[in-house]
Amino acid sequence: MNSTTQQAVAVLGSTGSIGVSTLDVIARHPDSYRAWALAANTSVEAMRDQCLTHQPEYAVMMCPDAAEQLRAVLPAELGTTVLQGEEGLHKIATDPAVDAVMAAVVGAAGLPSTLAAARAGKRVLLANKESLVMAGHLLMEAVRDSGALLLPIDSEHNAIFQCLPVDRAGRPGRAGVSKVLLTASGGPFRTWTPAQMAAATPEQACAHPNWDMGRKISVDSATLMNKGLELIEACWLFDLPAPQVEVVVHPQSIVHSMVQYDDGSVLAQLGNPDMRTPIAYGLAWPQRIDAGVAPLDLISQGRLDFEAPDEGRFPCLRLARESVMAGGTAAAICNAANEVAVAAFLDGHVGFGDIPAIIERTLADTPVVEPDSLAVVESADAQARACAALLVENRNS
Ligand SMILES: NC(=O)c1ccc[n+]([C@@H]2O[C@H](COP(=O)([O-])OP(=O)(O)OC[C@H]3O[C@@H](n4cnc5c(N)ncnc54)[C@H](OP(=O)(O)O)[C@@H]3O)[C@@H](O)[C@H]2O)c1
Fold first, then answer.
1. Is the pTM of this model over 0.85?
2. Is 227 annotated as a binding residue?
């Protein structure tokens, strides 16, 4: 093992879908990468197994009880120190020994550690799109000020990143770009009627046709809020106004997104729907490494279809677009209301059709202010959560 060229990676959200795929890619390249620290919320058993396999310096459990349980089951000779809570996450996101941080905590909970990694000037592999949606201004400012490298892991943004022009220093630019085309699978309800969607169960919403993902993002894909959050993410990442980000439904999820140029050219990135491709790209950029992904066979794929999104059946896409255009804390409010509504749907407290209604009402009832600091964003998030929780309660009573 050549420890001088080995990159130390902190995997935040290691027990989740993106975290597991990240550890798979890291394990394929032991000379180049090491899982230096892992973090999760409550999944003690999965974390124990990951620690035994990857032998990290640190394992962080957000929940203090889970941290206690992990300390009890990890053999002392492993040498892994168990930390807990936001302090633990901050430590591994910013430690001088860490080269790259995989930001793959789900939801708003990922914001403080993602921001901390950016402020510490790390190579930030951004899966946690909610960070940019809530605090795009603060995160992009942190990246600029610290010289951090922000690499998008969402497959669509990773595709756009790959298709953008680069300047002489290899940095992505926007010269000659007329718009970006964000592809969407359309989710499991793409062809469902409004009546069928109104009666949809959490299991049906989580049964994504092409991607195997965590439950929250799976529901977001079913409502198209995931595409709405990605539209906001694209505006921040690539410094584009919302009208220059067009959503195109592409049911096969083979074209991961495209960039359209002024001269009529459209560049696309294609591949099998497997998150290990963008993860490997983020880890190795500007190099390319094996991701363990099967090569794309276009002949057996046969056809690629494209259609317009139906914002009548999927109002979440419109709500997200309106909130990024409104500016201020509107997108953070939209994100918080969505998290509350999706959790209530997954717990069986509200129906699928209630999700956009709760978001729209929360957006109307929560004041929008300038997102000057993390505290302001967190306060808007808390107000929106309280408003959305009340709406959930009222629907239950
Ligand atoms: N899955 C995909 O294909 C995909 C694609 C693009 C982008 N993303 C984005 O990547 C992020 C992760 O998605 P996922 O599908 O991997 O989610 P997931 O499978 O639900 O995993 C979430 C991870 O976050 C941890 N976590 C949850 N709450 C936490 C908290 N308060 N503090 C610290 N850790 C916490 C979980 O730990 P426990 O196991 O202990 O709960 C788990 O490790 C999301 O922002 C999502 O939008 C995912």
1. yes
2. yes
